[in-house]
Design goal:
18 strands, alpha+beta, 16 helices, Immunoglobulin-like, about 20% strand, five-stranded antiparallel sheet, four-stranded antiparallel sheet
Amino acid sequence: MSSTTGETKVVSLYQSQKKIYAKSVTGRFANWRVLMVFITQAIFYGLAWLPWHGRQAVLFDLTERKFYIFGWVFWPQDVLYLTFILIVSAYALFFVTAIAGRVFCGYACPQTVYTEVFMWIEKKFEGDRAARMKLDAAPMSAEKLWRKGGKHFFWVLIALWTGFTFVGYFTPIHTLAHEVVTGTTGMWETFWILFYAFATWGNAGFMREQVCKYMCPYARFQSVMFDRDTLIVTYDQERGEPRGGRKKSADAKALNLGSCVDCSLCVQVCPTGIDIRKGLQNECIGCSACIDVCDTVMDKMNYPRGLVRYSTENALEKHWDGAAVRQHLLRPRIIIYFVVLCVLVGGLIASLALRNPLKVDVIRDRQVLAREVDGRYIENVYKFNVMNTSERTHKFSVTVDGLPDIKIERGGKIVAEPASTAASILTVRVPIDTVKTGSHAIHFKVQSESDSAVNVNEKSVFLIPR
């Protein structure tokens, strides 16, 4: 609120939002989006139920502090792998963006995928764009109530199933299903199922394009990864302008008109409500719905397709054909990105393939002092923790060296069950007259009796008292 010369003026800090009624569209890119919906949701909903050696194939068991990903078992100590996977994923997204813009947003982003699902349900109950606008403008009636209610009923069902599946990756899904059926879910499980369901229902059902415009940071820094040879959804202004309506039989050249018939269908099908004819905008998610609908109009007018198409800024300005566009996609920047990405992926795969399933922690028991035994030996006691990250039982033998005639008196055999830890107390002896007093470095070797490649060497110290 401001005041000037006695007049009061109210300034709103918020922009009012006009509801977007996106028109449904068919075409090759629409088919790709539908295919991506099926693929991504088959993976998300199905992977949680996939068995693997008697357990869930993918499970992030927070209670047991174990992460299962197919044949790998990760522990909190393996957080470096998670960090590396996130780095590779982010770099892959940047690489794809440098080539084809926000293609991930348009086809595989969860926000886009669930919005597609919710809009399909909305169309089944309320009809396409014009019917939805008419229904919203109409007063409440029995028909409006059941259409709106039916839509939200299925929205909520999908949202709850999504929240249940999400939590099923952190609590074994068979156990979670039993708890849900019997009404015995824990407080946190219940909270996250309902929270994730509410987020899905709200984001895909109501907020939709506002998530892409205002909440997602990707739209804000995407321009850093774009250049003039990045594939984006473009409008061929040189061919389309001046735009204007005309009959199908009319001669566009005689009327001094371009190919654009100014039907505004490209705006009506846009999920974020932009006009692609105004050029590249950060609200564009690259879904290519405008391409499909424009191609349909071009077909009806007997004009060549491609008034709106995937192209690059340089291609439009220099009138490149498809071959030239593809040639410039393989520019030095992309090649460097690709090489770095291959190195990162190769390093991750090699690290996982060469990963030692055995982890050992050796601690000299400070509560038990070095002591003389039978007047002939000095004895030290050690606490051994063995972590077996493989999916089979291992029997480990422990040996020690570093001092003359040093030996393990007891505790030299340790059995570790699959994906579990085992503890043992080792007593180590050294003849009393062979070593001087003080602290001496020794080495333990833990070796699997069934697999010679599974072994670990750990350092420790042996104390000889005065």
